[in-house]
Structures are given as structure tokens and as C-alpha cells.
Design goal:
The chain is an alpha+beta fold. The protein has two domains: 144 residues, Creatine Amidinohydrolase, Chain A, domain 1; 228 residues, Creatine Amidinohydrolase (Alpha-Beta Complex), CATH 3.90.230. Helix content is 31%, strand content 23%. It is built from nine helices and 20 strands. Strands 4-3-2-1-5-6 form a six-stranded mixed sheet, sandwiched between helices. Helix 6 crosses helix 7 and helix 8 runs antiparallel to helix 9. It binds manganese (II) ion. The site of manganese (II) ion (MN) has 5 residues, from loops.
Length: 377
């Protein structure tokens, strides 16, 4: 059995020691000193090494010995890109080899092992049979909690991705004309993001006309835009590794009815009420409540059918809901969405979403695209 002492990080590697230490601190608070990270995005976060393993075994083993010394071992199929620069011990194998005995050689069999949520059962169950550890626990939160607190460089990348998204919203509005379809607009967005400096969409764009907006996750289809329709855009890009995500709702070609105006202004008030209270120490649940109360007081409580928001970073949806059941306080450096909505089936739907960063004394709203009710076209 290897001791982490022998496997300590090379100082020349790309492995981020500060991030790895935060993960291990989080893990120790949960009673563990060894963990197998299998999520490729988390491995990238920790090492700067990117690989898509498909069905093959791929994991980063992190351990801390009794002296508090960190060790890391990368398990890589030989067809994966060379990982020797990472600064971890690299264990390679090929398609004809069973990687589980190699894992069993590395782990401490007398201690519990944290595994993350993406480690497939086809690997975990044989590891359990091989006795790789004294117990197996979901350790994802150790990595997720580290990823949730963005450093200054990450925050700049988050701001840049959202600035691109603000500009893309201008482009989206400019595409609105009678006869255009949801699908036509959605399918042109990637090219616009690339023109603006992003590399990809962070999720499939949502473009909804009229009553389609009552389905929060409507997939753009052949629905044609008519004067008097409401238009909802929920879009995001991925730029230099980080995600944006914003929703705006517009009225096309005609003033909204009094009813539509009331729905819109209620959602906007809910969005602003939540953003107004975000600060260190305030809980995710309190932020959700601030928005939900506005919608409930207006009588549409049952039609706000989802959590208020989600954390975001390297992935569009990261763990840590902004919801009534999440009682932890928010902390500086966290990034999440504030996206209240009212969905009236067969009638209309409005959602207004910004991304925010928790600061030392409040929050910074990353999106600057206006939110006041706007008639376009
Ligand atoms: Mn969102």
C-alpha cells in the first residue's frame, strides 16, 4: 500500500495545491482523509488537465497522511493525453487491463474513502469488492464546496462571460421580427457568441414565444412570432471555461395587457427583492423566500414552480441550490442565479434572471442588461 508521502505533488506540476488543500480540508471535516475524484471538470479544476474518458476509468486520488502531507495519483488509460506534467504520480493502464487492482494498490484500506457523484457503479462496486477502503462515502461536497468559492481570477472570467451574454441579448432582441421562428433565432446564437469572444453555449438556449414561455424549459421549435407575443430568452455562453446564464422577457410589437404587465412587474419585483438582500451570512433559503414572498403576495405562489436559482461556474448548474431547503449562509466569492418566474399554462410565462457574486458586504449583479418592461419591434 502506498503512503501519500511517496506520492507528494511535484512543485513543477500544474496541480493547484491551494485548491487541493481546500478539498482535503473539506474532506477532513467530513471524517475522511482520502478521496477519488472522477468528475473530469473537477479534475480539470484541480490540475488543469482535461480529458473526456467516455466509458473508461479515469480518476484523481487525493490523500493526506497522518503528518498532514498531501499526495495525488492520476489514473489514466494510456490513450488519454499525457498527464505527467500534472505533478501527481501517474498510473497508466490500457484497454485490456483491469484498473481496479491498481486503485487498490494506491488506497489506504483501513480508512474510509470519499468518492464523487460521477464515479460509475461499474467501478465503485468492484472497488468495494476489492476492499479498497474501510468504507465508501459520497465526498462530492468536498470538491463542490471548494469550487463554489471563486478566486479573483475566476470572478473576472465569470464577469467576462456575463458581459458577453449581455451583448448577446442585444443581438437576440435585434432578431425579433414577424414570422421568425424560435428555432431560427436559437440556432444562430452560437455564431454570435463566438463573434463576441465566447467558445460555446453553456446550455441549450431557450427561446419561447407566447404561451410557450409557460414551460420553463421549453425547447425552441417552429413556433412563429406574431405581433403581441411575449418573448422569453434564457441563454448562456461558455467563455474561457466559465459559464453565463441570463433570462429576459420582452413584449413584441404591442403594449402588454394589464394582466401581462402585472405578471411581469411581479417577477421583476421578486428578482430585485432577492438581489437586495444577498450578503454574507444571509442563507440561500432566505434569498429564495424574499423572491417567493413577492410572488405569493401577488397570488401567483403556486405558479412559481422551481427553486429561485443555482450556483454556477465551470458548469452552468453547480451544486448548492438557492432554495427553501438550503439553510447554509452564502459566502463571499459564491456565484449563483436569481431567477424567479411565473408560469401560467396556456396563457403566459415570465422569468427574469441575473447572475450575482457575493461580495464582502453585499452582492454584485453581473448582468447589466435592463430589466424594465420593454416593448420591442
Ligand atoms: Mn439559470
Amino acid at each position: 500500500m502506498n503512503t501519500p508521502d511517496k506520492d507528494c505533488f511535484s512543485p513543477s506540476g500544474t496541480l493547484d495545491l491551494a485548491r487541493a488543500r481546500r478539498v482535503m480540508d473539506n474532506l477532513e471535516r467530513r471524517g475522511m482523509r482520502q478521496m477519488l475524484v472522477a468528475d473530469p471538470m473537477s479534475i480539470w479544476y484541480l490540475t488543469g488537465y482535461w480529458n473526456v474518458p467516455y466509458e473508461r476509468f479515469y480518476a484523481l486520488y487525493l490523500a493526506r497522511n497522518e503528518a498532514g502531507r498531501l499526495g495525488a495519483t492520476m489514473f489514466c488509460n494510456r490513450l488519454f493525453p499525457d498527464a505527467t506534467h500534472v505533478g501527481a504520480r501517474v498510473v497508466t493502464f490500457d484497454d485490456t487491463e483491469d484498473p481496479i487492482p491498481l486503485v487498490a494498490e494506491a488506497t489506504n484500506h483501513d480508512e474510509p474513502l470519499g468518492v464523487d457523484k460521477v464515479l460509475a457503479a461499474r467501478w465503485l462496486l468492484p472497488m468495494m469488492e476489492a476492499g479498497c477502503a474501510s468504507g465508501y462515502h459520497l465526498g462530492s461536497a468536498a470538491v463542490d464546496d471548494a469550487r463554489a468559492i471563486k478566486d479573483a481570477r475566476e470572478l473576472d472570467l465569470m464577469r467576462a462571460a456575463s458581459a458577453t451574454n449581455d451583448r448577446a441579448m442585444e443581438w437576440l432582441v435585434a432578431q425579433l421580427h414577424e414570422g421568425v421562428t424560435e428555432h431560427q433565432i436559437a440556432s444562430g446564437l452560437l455564431a454570435e457568441y463566438r463573434r463576441l469572444g465566447a467558445q460555446d453555449v453553456s446550455f441549450t438556449p431557450i427561446v419561447s414565444f407566447g404561451a410557450n414561455a409557460a414551460d420553463p424549459h421549453h425547447e425552441p421549435d417552429g413556433t412563429v412570432l406574431h405581433k403581441g407575443d411575449l418573448v422569453l430568452f434564457d441563454v448562456g455562453c461558455k467563455q474561457d471555461g466559465y459559464c453565463s446564464d441570463m433570462t429576459r422577457t420582452f413584449f413584441f410589437g404591442a403594449e402588454p395587457s394589464a394582466h401581462e404587465r402585472q405578471v411581469y412587474e411581479t417577477v421583476r419585483a421578486a428578482n430585485e427583492a432577492a438581489e437586495a438582500i444577498v450578503a454574507p451570512g444571509v442563507t440561500f433559503a432566505q434569498i429564495d423566500r424574499a423572491a417567493r414572498k413577492v410572488i405569493e403576495d401577488a397570488g401567483w405562489g403556486p405558479y412559481f414552480t422551481h427553486r429561485l436559482g443555482h450556483q454556477i461556474g465551470l458548469e452552468d448548474h453547480e451544486p448548492g441550490d438557492v432554495s427553501s431547503t438550503h439553510d447554509e449562509p452564502v459566502r463571499p466569492g459564491m456565484c449563483f442565479s436569481i431567477e424567479p418566474g411565473i408560469y401560467l399554462p396556456g396563457d403566459t410565462g415570465v422569468r427574469i434572471e441575473d447572475l450575482v457574486i457575493v461580495t464582502e458586504d453585499g452582492c454584485e449583479v453581473m448582468n447589466s442588461y435592463p430589466k424594465q418592461l420593454t416593448v420591442v419591434g
